[in-house]
């Protein structure tokens, strides 16, 4: 499955948030959206998910305008995890993850639905929380619950808006590594908004770097993330170090 973003702009009232953004995301790829706060990452994710309508431009899935795809069919194609979660208090983790199966359910829950939910909870290491209420969990645990809900949805494509923001260091690494493995294994696709440049450098195939709502650069992490681009976009100095574990970015306050 391919998602194509063609000359997309977005604004809130008269304030332009995105301007003329174009790129393509293909099955088997993980694409990171990078940029400082206010650069348009979340707005772009919501626009691709058809939560927001572009002020101009076009978003297609396999050549079909996303706005013309039936809502239930689109839910089977795209799993969306927002930056901020809305949930009903005193709903169990199991029931919350089961909501991800809603596009497939008719009058009752099938064995396939329960199997998908069980697999998603196991993948996100929350099976032991299945009977807990979501409002009793920590922020990081809740974040893993909603990622599991997207996994249970079994979509062709994942749209994740800063899914690691509430996770501790270990779970950040595990979550992004797990999602990359799923994308590779299932030949699905993923667009993920991140703040951590090292996660993008290590686990993604392409990087779209945004500055003030415009595309600063797009390409492989190694090509896009340089000392010059980090300085221009984030306003900090950076250097790259390499060891047996890979290549990493160290950032510093500007001298």
From TrEMBL:
<protein>
    <recommendedName>
        <fullName>Cobalamin import ATP-binding protein BtuD</fullName>
        <ecNumber>7.6.2.8</ecNumber>
    </recommendedName>
</protein>
<feature type="domain" description="ABC transporter">
    <location>
        <begin position="3"/>
        <end position="237"/>
    </location>
</feature>
<dbReference type="InterPro" id="IPR003439">
    <property type="entry name" value="ABC_transporter-like_ATP-bd"/>
</dbReference>
<dbReference type="Pfam" id="PF00005">
    <property type="entry name" value="ABC_tran"/>
</dbReference>
<dbReference type="InterPro" id="IPR027417">
    <property type="entry name" value="P-loop_NTPase"/>
</dbReference>
<keyword id="KW-0813">Transport</keyword>
<dbReference type="GO" id="GO:0015420">
    <property type="term" value="F:ABC-type vitamin B12 transporter activity"/>
</dbReference>
<dbReference type="InterPro" id="IPR003593">
    <property type="entry name" value="AAA+_ATPase"/>
</dbReference>
<comment type="function">
    <text>Required for corrinoid utilization. Probably part of the ABC transporter complex BtuCDF involved in cobalamin (vitamin B12) import. Probably responsible for energy coupling to the transport system.</text>
</comment>
<dbReference type="InterPro" id="IPR017871">
    <property type="entry name" value="ABC_transporter-like_CS"/>
</dbReference>
<keyword id="KW-0547">Nucleotide-binding</keyword>
<keyword id="KW-0067">ATP-binding</keyword>
<dbReference type="GO" id="GO:0005524">
    <property type="term" value="F:ATP binding"/>
</dbReference>
<keyword id="KW-1278">Translocase</keyword>
<dbReference type="GO" id="GO:0016887">
    <property type="term" value="F:ATP hydrolysis activity"/>
</dbReference>
């Amino acid at each position: 499955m391919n998602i194509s973003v063609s000359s997309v702009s977005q604004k809130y009232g008269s304030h332009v948030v995105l301007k003329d953004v174009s790129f393509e995301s293909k099955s088997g790829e993980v694409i990171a959206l990078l940029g400082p706060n206010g650069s348009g990452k979340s707005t772009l994710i919501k626009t691709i998910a058809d939560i927001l309508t572009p002020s101009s431009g076009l978003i297609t899935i396999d050549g079909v305008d996303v706005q013309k795809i039936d809502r239930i069919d689109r839910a089977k194609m795209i799993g969306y995890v927002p930056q901020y979660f809305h949930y009903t208090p005193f709903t169990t983790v199991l029931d919350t993850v089961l909501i991800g199966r809603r596009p497939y359910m008719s009058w009752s829950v099938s064995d396939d639905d329960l199997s998908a939910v069980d697999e998603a909870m196991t993948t996100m290491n929350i099976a032991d929380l299945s009977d807990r209420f979501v409002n009793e969990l920590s922020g990081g645990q809740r974040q893993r619950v909603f990622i599991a809900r997207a996994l249970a949805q079994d979509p062709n494509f994942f749209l994740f808006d800063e899914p690691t923001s509430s996770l501790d260091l270990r779970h950040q690494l595990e979550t992004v590594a797990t999602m990359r493995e799923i994308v590779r294994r299932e030949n699905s696709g993923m667009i993920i908004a991140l703040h951590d440049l090292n996660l993008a450098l290590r686990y993604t195939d392409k990087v779209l770097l945004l500055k003030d709502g415009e595309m600063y650069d797009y390409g492989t992490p190694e090509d896009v993330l340089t000392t010059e681009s980090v300085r221009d976009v984030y306003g900090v100095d950076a250097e790259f170090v390499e060891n047996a574990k890979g290549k990493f970015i160290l950032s510093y306050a500007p001298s």
